[in-house]
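Tokens as discussed.
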């Protein structure tokens, strides 16, 4: 008896059903026909199989498309079963939601990093002009990370005030009513006004509070947007649209107007310098950094 052994099964004329030809078995991966396509292998094995199976037609061996047999049905069910039970991940709605959630988490993480990173850069810049262990008040502190970083860099006692009930950073935070700073007279060595003055509805009240809480020889650190050219004015206009419902209309000034306001409020400008528009690409406007010191004599205010 002639036997064909391929893979893990032995095929003999008795083990092959009468209704199944060897080429169908080969097509369904029950039999590997590769060795029989070589001329030396076209020998007695194939001839004996064809003769013993009277119902196997020679034409079926020549047809490229084969009808589905019992064994091929088994193979199809085995191979298609996992695909039917587990559709591709790309089309899975749950997977798509997980993918979108991952993108959203990544975006929130990057925004948080940029926010904390910008606050750290500003804290480093401010720390260069303030002595160690200073008492610092951050007016309009927002998320509070500038005060938080300064407390670590300078070993300073930092207080943050703003209109909101709470802030993100772990600092000494106090809610501000927009009129009076919630701290005693002459209780701080430095006051930070980081992009705050253009939000003030009455600049004279704010500058008076600034003089009240500063100790003798104290300094004020001011960051402000400067509408120098048309692009800066456009960015300031969009900023005003965003904030006017919450804090009221913004009032932006140029360099000379800020100098006049500081002088009339009883402060002299120790240092000032221009800052790059590229510091914040979402708000690309010309900026200026001021370090102010109180004058000895109190002077009347003018807008």
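Sequence:
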């Amino acid at each position: 008896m002639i036997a064909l052994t391929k893979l893990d099964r032995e095929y003999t004329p008795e083990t092959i059903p009468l209704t199944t030809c060897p080429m169908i078995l080969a097509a369904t991966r029950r039999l590997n026909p590769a060795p029989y396509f070589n001329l030396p292998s076209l020998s007695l094995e194939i001839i004996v199989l064809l003769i013993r199976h009277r119902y196997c037609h020679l034409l079926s061996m020549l047809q490229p498309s084969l009808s589905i047999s019992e064994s091929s049905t088994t193979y199809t069910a085995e191979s298609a079963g996992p695909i039917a039970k587990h559709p591709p991940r790309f089309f899975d709605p749950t997977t798509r939601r997980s993918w979108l959630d991952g993108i959203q988490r990544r975006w929130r993480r990057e925004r948080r990093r940029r926010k904390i990173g910008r606050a750290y850069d500003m804290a480093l810049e401010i720390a260069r002009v303030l002595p160690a262990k200073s008492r610092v008040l951050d007016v309009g502190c927002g998320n509070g990370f500038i005060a938080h970083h300064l407390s670590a860099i300078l070993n300073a006692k930092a207080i943050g005030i703003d209109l909101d009930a709470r802030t993100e950073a772990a600092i000494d935070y106090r809610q501000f009513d927009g009129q009076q700073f919630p701290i005693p007279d002459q209780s701080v060595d430095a006051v930070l006004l980081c992009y705050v003055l253009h939000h003030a509805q009455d600049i004279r009240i704010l500058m008076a509070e600034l003089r009240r809480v500063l100790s003798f020889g104290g300094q004020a650190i001011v960051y402000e947007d400067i509408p120098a050219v048309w692009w800066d004015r456009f960015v300031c206009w969009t900023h005003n649209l965003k904030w006017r419902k919450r804090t009221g209309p913004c009032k932006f000034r140029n360099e000379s107007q800020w100098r006049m306001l500081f002088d009339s409020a009883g402060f002299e400008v120790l240092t000032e310098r221009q800052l790059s528009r590229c510091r914040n690409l979402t708000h690309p406007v010309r900026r200026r950094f001021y370090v102010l010191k109180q004058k000895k004599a109190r002077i009347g205010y003018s807008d």
